[in-house]
Design goal:
Rossmann fold; Dihydrodipicolinate Reductase, domain 2; Alpha-Beta Plaits; 3 domains; elongated
């Protein structure tokens, strides 16, 4: 059993859950910087829980502080702040809950648990008058949660748009610049350590989905269930699409977006999108992350920086730790979550679409596709015919539409796939709408 306790100014002992590269960077930052340089904040890692204590670590921490026993952290009266860096929901949710109930403040980098169970954890923190801070859970070193929670609190947020997954941005950037195919770049990203051996969480958009759930809840004071966030990964984006998009004036990025207004509600979505070359988001390359927030008072804001990595993540974690030591009780930063927005359906989203088809190169083909689109109330903006293969009588048809409703487009796509003149529908990508483009 754990003993309820409260952190006071004397108890700045830190318990680490997880001592991988980020945990080690946090421990080393505390040792190298805060304890030595700022004796008024006598932070100290007093216990660390790991899966394998025998593993070799580059960390300046006494081996006796490292164990596999969670009770060395959550039943430890020396620990005032628990830093959770394990990731995943199970057992992190239970550990964080136990720590909060034991009166310990918690700082976490765990986007999945904050996306899926954050509402319960924030309630537990409030009930126990402790803080639960999670700046490191989204966009690594970029301060975005603090600004949404505090500095921008007076604004109505009009939109929040980000490149918040570095792995996919690295892959898409390479594809754009080198004309390479997805699978080749993925292999390279894996060998460089930018992609996991099982890349699903990144390339299928789950990681970005969790992060936008966390940001949308803060921005719109509305719980956004993860499975109500439209999610598509980058596996269907092909080298050809970058070529054609470029001719049309766009690049392709995996965007995570949350937008809300009182009429249509709140829509959160993650999908590859065509981005006009002239907007800043088009220039965010490699593993960088960026978030663009538009508030009604402040206007558009732009945050860009490293979205992952031991030191950038430790920077965000330590910012939260220091905030806890300075503010004591958690009430002022524990957001309540009223419910002013309904969650909108992706079916009602309106944007331009880019379609790439492999079609027979013969009379009437374009007319048949145009008819399907027209019947679905979708107007064509431009058409390119590319890579004509006269020998096999086929060509790439690239169609850019005017703004259309998602449900209409999905129904048109089903009908286009049925046309015997269309050999394959290769790509359907959304064009991101920037209302202030001249
Ligand atoms: N895998 C993530 C990314 C980093 O590629 O951005 C941690 O969230």
């Amino acid at each position: 059993m754990t003993t309820p306790k409260r952190m006071d100014s004397q108890v700045t002992g830190i318990g680490l859950l997880g001592l991988g590269v980020v945990g080690s960077a946090v421990a080393n930052t505390i040792t190298d910087r805060h304890r030595l340089e700022d004796p008024s904040v006598p932070l100290e890692v007093v216990a660390a829980v790991v899966r394998d204590p025998s593993r070799k670590r580059e960390v300046s921490l006494d081996q006796s502080a490292i164990s596999t026993d969670i009770e060395t952290v959550i039943a430890n009266p020396e620990v005032g702040i628990v830093v959770e860096l394990m990731g995943g929901v199970d057992p992190a949710f239970d550990y964080i809950t136990s720590a909060l109930k034991a009166g310990q403040h918690v700082v976490t980098a765990n986007k999945e648990v904050m996306a899926k169970r954050g509402i319960d954890l924030l309630a537990t923190a409030a009930e126990n008058s402790v803080q639960l801070l999670y700046e490191a859970s989204v966009a690594g070193g970029i301060p975005i949660i603090g600004p949404l929670m505090n500095d921008l609190a007076a604004n109505k947020i009009r939109s929040l748009r980000g490149i918040i997954n570095g792995t996919t941005n690295f892959i898409l950037t390479k594809m754009a610049h080198e004309g390479a195919d997805f699978n080749d770049v993925l292999t390279e990203a894996q060998s460089l350590g930018y992609a996991e051996s099982d890349p699903t969480a990144d390339v299928d958009g789950f990681d970005a989905q969790y992060k936008i759930a966390v940001l949308a809840r803060l921005a719109y004071h509305t719980e956004v269930p993860v499975d109500e966030i439209h999610r598509e990964g980058i596996q269907e984006v092909h080298a050809k699409d970058f070529r054609y998009a470029k001719e049309l004036g766009y690049t392709i990025k995996l965007l995570a977006v949350a937008q809300a207004d009182s009429e249509s509600g709140l829509l959160a979505r993650v999908h590859p999108a065509l981005i006009p070359f002239e907007v800043p988001m088009a220039t965010v390359n490699g593993v960088l992350n960026a978030v663009e927030v538009e508030g009604d008072l402040v206007g558009p804001l732009w945050f860009q920086g490293p979205g992952a990595g031991p030191n950038p993540t430790a920077s965000a974690v330590m910012g939260d730790v220091i905030r806890v030591t300075k503010s004591g009780s958690g009430e002022e930063t524990t957001p309540d979550v009223p419910d002013p927005f309904l969650i909108a359906s992706m079916d009602d989203h309106v944007c331009q679409y880019y379609l790439r088809l492999t079609a027979s190169d013969r009379p009437g083909v374009l007319a048949s596709v145009a008819k399907v689109l027209g019947d679905a109330d979708i107007s064509i903006n431009s058409v390119l015919q590319k890579d004509t293969d006269t020998e096999n009588g086929r060509a790439d048809l690239v169609i850019m539409t005017h703004p259309a409703r998602e449900a209409n487009m999905q129904s048109a796509v089903s009908s286009i796939k049925e046309l015997d003149t269309v050999l394959q529908l290769d790509s359907l990508l959304r064009v991101e709408t920037y209302s202030d483009r001249s």
